[in-house]
Amino acid sequence: MSVAAQVRVQLGSLDLDAAIDISPGELVAVLGPNGAGKSTLLRALAGLQPIDAGRITIDETVVDDGDAVFVEPERRPIGVVFQQYLLFEHMSVLENVAFGLRARGTAKADARRTAGQWLDRVRLGEYASERPRALSGGQAQRVALARALAADPRLLLLDEPLAALDVGTRASVRRDLRQYLASFDGMRLLVTHDPVDAYALADRVAILEAGRIVQTGTLAEVTARPRSRYVADLVGVNLVRGVVSDGVLRTVDGATVVIADAAPGDSIAVIRPHSVVLTTDAPTSSARNVWPGTIVDIDRLGDRVRVVIDGPIPLTAEITAAALDALHLRPGDPVHAAVKATDIDVSPV
Amino acid sequence: MLALAGIAIAFFALPLVGLLWRAPWSNAWGYLTDHDALTALRLSIVCSLWATALSVVFGVPLAWVLARVEFPGRTVVRALCTLSMVLPPVVGGVALFFALGRRGLVGQYLDRWFDIRLPFTTAGVVVAQTFVAMPFLVITVEAALRQLDQRVEDAARTLGASRWYTFRRVTLPAVRPALVAGAVLSWARALGEFGATITFAGNFPGTTQTMPLAVYLSLETNPEEAIVLALVLIAISFAVLVGLRDRWFGARTAVAA
Amino acid sequence: MRSRTRLLASTLVIASLALGACGDDDAPKTSAGTVTVFAAASLTAAFTEIGDAFMTEYPDAEVVFNFAASSELVTQIGEGAPADVFASADQNNMTKLTDAGGSATEPALFARNLLQIIVGPGNPTGITGVADLADEDLIVVTCAPEVPCGKYAAEIFANAGVTVTPKSLEENVKAVVSKVTLGEADAGIVYRTDVIAAGSDAAGVEIPEDINVVAEYPVAVTKDAPNADGAQAFIDFVLSEQGRKILDSYGFLAP
Lengths: 349, 257, 255
Fold this sequence. Notes:
The complex is a heterotrimer of chains A (349), B (257) and C (255). Chain A folds into 2 domains: 3-229, Rossmann fold (3-Layer(aba) Sandwich); 237-348, CATH 2.40.50.100. Helices cover 26% and strands 34% of the residues of chain A.
């Protein structure tokens, strides 16, 4: 019971040739910039974009082989949450959620009862008779999720579910989404351009670059060892999870990160590798965070060097090749890593 | 701007005022209850409703194909299907003869094999009216379909809805205001149709003489009666246009407010 | 369509008048000048030729035509259209104009026309006379009773004592002709001039004189004629030997 997809699609300037697997119960994030082919990959799985070649198998059933076999979207065991949510404006919220069941032949009363239960589950029971335009962005997303899940799909596809939201509401919606996605035990595929989304929600990431999957693994693995300059730029950020209180983020291991103003609660701190300053002696700069550590690895990527450091906060620093030579650093050497509090972004999760 | 708009309003209103000014109010009731006038009015309403129904039944799928199906020569087909809007109606009537007349391309077989004759019949009136009226519906609905976010239909498909179910439950309701507007335009055009009708279907009281034909012919002998009949036609169209606007377009704003 | 043609024709008439007026300012006055003729549609071909001949006779003259149904022309003149001459296809419409005080001279008869049965080329249904038109299987069309040719058709059927149910009552005689020449109708009642004008597209079956109706064509100078002298010159020309000959060639009978 899994998904195995080998997708080849030529669409305008896009040349998509990507393989992706999802194990039962797994949530995979496809991470890549706009135009990489993320949405096309998702549409291929949904049956909205027939593939030119390859094979898509969902639960041992081939749904598209680029040739004779093509299962229409309505006959695939899927649910999709679109970026713009795409709720049916002429129906009530309840009718939106009941739509999938009605379309599959469930009697009206039964469909409405089930839809009502789903609305209660996403805490929107009192909006049942409203029109979608009365909802906020976050509420609309929850309705879209309920609508997709009400029809009991095996595979849930989410296309940039947070991109349409403004920064202010994104964090709380992300937290809700995490909770709802955790309660769904089917397979989930999330498409996003934001590493924080992937980190907060996904078990595993697949990095899509110009139509090719260039790296897969847990986000920690990919962040620590990006296999290309491109991946490094895209996901090569240090993500530190912890609880914020009084301007300090504390990890489960007890390490602390001093941050600029942020709301208290579970959060992820984003530390960009090029914000990390390395010195061999304890630094005298104004940086609020100084962590001693040991160099684990040194990766040269062109004229830039990524230095992987183990310490109370495991970090990846990015310095120039010239700086590396000046510091005479080698794996195993002790080093101090310094980061200014104002260079750290904090997202609540 | 306001001055120009004012001129435009006067341009539309003055001819109507002219008709009202010349109307023989004292004799109006007599002309109205005249048997021939009532017959023509009834025929006009029945035929224009049929033409509207046919325009919807065939025009909506046509609009969908034009909006959604990519095929070579689509522009040509679209131009072809809206040609009757710019064609002089009498030419349209003659063209209908060539197609559906007793000696027409298709008409000769309708006559020979099925004993169906359209010219000089009420069905012919409906055909002529549909010919000139349907483009109004097609254009309106096609524009609405093009504006509609197709991904909403995609969303419906991923929820288990077949193409037909999606069309019925998602697409059609979403373009309903345009469909209603298009149907009303078609109906108004069919109701006022003159040239194609008198050419293709002829003029015979009770079978093919619609109101516009009756108005035109009474202009020859009894201009007073013609004015009264024309005013009846205008009153009916006006009532429907105003009424539907309130009902469909006014109602939407009420919900939003 | 008809109203559009009419509008166009009127516009042209007005435009030509304006141009003609400008010309008059420059050129010395002549006996003819610009003559505006409102004539029945059935006179279109014959009067166009007469107009050409008239302008050959009077090189300084300009004849401008407005052809339409006689009843429409009466309405237009009544509404102030600048006509010099009115040539009607029946006495009835001329009477309407004179009763309203719209004519300046006593109307003069200049032609007569007879009605004929028009049938397809070679008379495929073998119609020999009015009695044959009572056959329910035939598609017969006539003019509507509101227009002269329809009134005449009804008179002929009454004179012949037959009941004919037309499939359509057309708004003008040319529509009857085209229904027959297009093959959609088997027969119709039209003027013999129309049958002649249709040439090889149609054939005519004579209607005996005892049941036939004679259409009389009167012509008169209008009361408000901008060019009354020219109008009279044109009418004189229509009534002359030369005018008579041209009318004859289109199938009109002498008055």
